[in-house]
Design a protein that fits this description.
alpha/beta; Rossmann fold; 7-stranded mixed beta sheet; 5-stranded mixed beta sheet; 30% helix
């Protein structure tokens, strides 16, 4: 091991721990009067936000929450959730952001597995918890979250959120402790077995936040989040801390708009009325925004949107650009906190017309600062960065989860060889840009060759009648697998299999795909199955297709 020189600290020097509480220092200094908005229900300034976080810390402490305990939250995206992002970990407890879109059985599993002590629950989710309360093994009490009048419940409620805050002191001296203490946990669903618990420390969240501030705001080629922007998440706060952006926005002191329950027309109205300029979401939500009735009377110019979670098809990106949205793509996963890559355009590329920029904008982007990324083959060897060679994406960064909660064997598999294995197949070109080719489990292997389901989806999406598409591999006796496409058409649009096959022939002629890659099975459907976070659920599509057979 390399020997280095370490200088001793001066007597009395303060060893500054990287704790979430430090992210609160700057926002109210810069913009004390800037607003936190909860849909059409509530608004207050940063000074009040800081007071309410302290009141919540006192209320939690009075409820018996101690350092190391776990506090679960079941809520829509709200000011309350933002307050929990800070108050819970700042008293040394662990924040468990419960995925409210999981089945009751999965919610029960995750809450028991996380060993939740106190649960903060919105009225809308009382029936869910009442259904499973007798099987929750560690929960000691509940706090009720309500937007109007609190609903009656059989749960042993300790108090109502606003009433508890009103009775609590606005003073709280948040302690110092080890920056490697766990701050948050949440659960990610895989292809098999129970959900896996991902966890992050204070140090990791602070480093991720500081990096995101620079990444999203410092570069001319990535002008997404500056001090004069208005931020509204369209990614659930239970999913990877809404991609960590609430921490970024709070550090910067910018106006934040929390929409509550996601409803496309409401989101579009909030965009207009609150002058939202930056959001992030998955492609399926973007498509819902573009096609909702409110969108027909809305000018989306100036709305900067970061797309992640799954690949952005060129057709949807074109629709968004034509409506005035400025689309960027990002890449990451639950285990990476999540920021790994974002679209980055150089000056010459920014000077091109938008239709020439879009093929770059929909790629995964360039690894952000402090992310070490490799593409490796099946033997763990690096493949060339020529835009052609493909392999699994493996990464290192200071904010990646160190394992899975209570499952060391799965954590060891995730970190095999000292690199976090993403399970994604990609290539890196000469300019350093990453292109995701597919998930390892979603690659379609036919006749000894492989087909990228993402490439086919992007090509199909370019047909003007297509609003949404999913491509999966289904078993084939002759070829092993063949691609099958599920397609949602725009209302009133006429499209059949022959016309779509003809559309795909142009990509055969240009050499982008082989003719045998054109799906021979195309299903025109009203909707495509989604996961709990709004991504296309290819696992369920394959299962349904096999069951149908």
């Amino acid at each position: 091991m390399l020997k280095t020189k370490i200088m001793p600290c001066a007597q009395g020097a303060y060893s500054y721990p990287l704790l979430i509480k430090s992210l609160l220092l700057s926002g109210q200094r810069y913009e004390a009067e800037q607003e936190i908005v909860y849909a059409d229900k509530l608004r207050y300034n940063y000074r009040t936000l800081n007071e309410r976080i302290r009141q919540l810390a006192n209320a939690l402490t009075a409820a018996g929450v101690k350092a190391g305990d776990t506090v679960a939250v079941l809520d829509w995206d709200s000011h309350r959730y933002l307050e929990c992002f800070f108050a819970v970990p700042m008293i040394g407890a662990v924040l468990h952001t419960v995925n409210i879109r999981m089945s009751p059985e999965q919610v029960l599993y995750t809450m028991n597995h996380a060993e939740d002590d106190l649960v903060l629950v919105h009225d809308d989710f009382l029936p869910l918890l009442e259904q499973i309360q007798d099987e929750l093994t560690t929960v000691k009490g509940y706090v009720q979250l309500t937007d109007d009048c609190a609903k009656a419940t059989s749960l042993p409620v300790w108090g109502e959120y606003e009433a508890l805050l009103a009775d609590a002191s606005k003073q709280y001296d948040f302690p110092d402790f080890d920056e490697n203490s766990v701050a948050t946990t949440f659960y990610t669903t895989g292809t098999t077995g129970n959900p896996k618990g991902v966890y992050f420390s204070h140090r990791q969240l602070v480093l991720h936040t500081l990096n995101a501030v620079g990444t999203l705001g410092a570069y001319r080629g990535l002008p997404l989040l500056r001090s004069d922007d208005v931020y509204m998440p369209i990614t659930p706060m239970f999913h990877v801390h809404a991609w960590g952006v609430p921490y970024v926005a709070t550090l910067m002191g910018i106006k934040q708009v929390y929409p509550g329950r996601y409803e496309p027309n409401t989101l579009v109205r909030l965009f207009r009325e609150e002058k939202v300029s930056f959001s992030h979401c998955v492609p399926t939500i973007l498509q819902m925004l573009l096609s909702c009735p409110e969108a027909a009377q809305t000018d989306f110019s100036g709305w900067k949107i970061l797309i992640g979670g799954s690949a952005l098809a060129l057709g949807i990106a074109s629709q968004a650009a034509n409506r005035g949205m400025l689309v960027h793509a990002g890449y990451g996963m639950s285990e990476t906190c999540p920021l790994l890559c974002t679209t980055y355009l150089r000056a010459a590329e920014l000077a091109q017309p938008m239709d020439a920029q879009l093929p770059l904008r929909i790629k995964a982007g360039v690894p952000v600062a402090m992310v070490d990324m490799r593409i490796i083959d099946a033997n763990g060897q690096d493949v060339p960065h020529d835009g052609e060679a493909v392999g699994e994406i493996v990464v290192r960064a200071p904010w990646l989860t160190q394992g899975y909660l209570h499952e060391p064997e799965k954590g060891a598999e995730l970190w095999e060889g000292g690199w976090l294995h993403t399970g994604d197949i990609g290539s890196i070109d000469e300019r350093g840009g990453l292109e995701i080719k597919d998930r390892i489990k979603d690659v379609i292997k036919t006749g000894g060759e492989w087909i990228s389901s993402l490439d086919l989806e992007s090509m199909i999406s370019e047909h003007p009648a297509v609003t949404s598409v999913a491509v999966v591999g289904i078993p084939d006796d002759q070829w092993g697998e063949r691609p099958m496409a599920m397609v949602v058409c725009a209302p009133g649009a006429a499209l059949d299999q022959a016309a779509l096959e003809q559309h795909l022939l142009q990509f055969v002629d240009s050499g982008q795909i082989n003719k045998w890659a054109i799906p021979k099975q195309i299903k025109f459907v009203a909707d495509i199955p989604k996961t709990s976070v709004g991504k296309i659920n290819k696992k369920l599509i394959r299962e349904n297709e096999l069951a149908g057979r």
